[in-house]
Amino acid sequence: MSRHRINLIIFLIILTFPLFDRTSYHLDVAVLIGIFSILSIGLNVLLGNTGQISLGHAAFFGIGAYTNALLTRDVGFSFWSSLPISSLFTGIIGYGIGLTSLRLKGHYLAMATLAFGIITSTIITEWTELTGGTGGFRNIPYPAIGSFRFDSGVKYFYLVWIFVIFIFLFTENFLSTRVGRALKAIHKNEDVANVLGINPTKYKLKIFGLSAIYAGVAGALFANHSNFISSESFSIMVSVSILCMITIGGLGKTWGSIMGASLLTLFPEIIRYVVSSPFFSQSVRRALTNYSYHLFIYGILMLLVIVFLPGGLISIFQGKGARSQNARS
Hints:
CATH architecture: Orthogonal Bundle
Largest sheet: 2 strands, antiparallel
CATH topology: ABC transporter involved in vitamin B12 uptake, BtuC
Mean pLDDT: 86
Radius of gyration: 20 Å
Low-confidence stretches: 320-329
């Protein structure tokens, strides 16, 4: 079976989810998986395909969310007119961050993007007149098409996952073009790519901008879904979580981004289910629900994946596919 047919079948299965489960809470979790899938795909294009690490991706997420929230609530724009504006604005900032980071590589680039994330988080928290600060930004309107409003879990689920499918297909096609091959060449060896006539600077800037645009789209969808956003949703810990998602799912693999986002978004729900068991003491329950312990377990998962599955979770399925093709041949 071709890869395109497999992708189609998987997405059709995902889109049938509300037919079997219309629980509001479960639909909200599915929406968050979609939003973090978009974020992860964007970061994976930057890190997994170009080798440019970013520890401030949540900052782009927050910029997209607050820009879209301001345009829809205070300026009176519709979601559909504010979405491209907020996404492009986020992309321009991403391009600017790329400009400042051209001379940086490895951990130096990581530190620069980390600093950007801290600065953005501080601005969101302290600029209370614009963002609401720690009190949050409230009463963000739902997206609408005429009189039809995406004001229920089922409606928003389909809205978000249509965006996920579009971004997935765009990314897969984009990475299969000459530009995608150039990015892989830059990732493998920047000096060799330069000799081959590939301009690493040009491609790095474009990918920084594209990755930020993805985050801007995710931020807009997040803001108009929650109707309320606060600085906690765009902290450095969120950037770390997104990095964990693509590492555990599979660097350089679009499906790996979705798998990692699904696993780590569901992880707190799994923990919540486990701690509800009567077999655990109260102290153990408190420890398991502490977010710092979640990060500790994320770290253990990343170590296990790096040691035993360096290609990420997606490599399990790719390995099976490769073995089946070898068996047929």
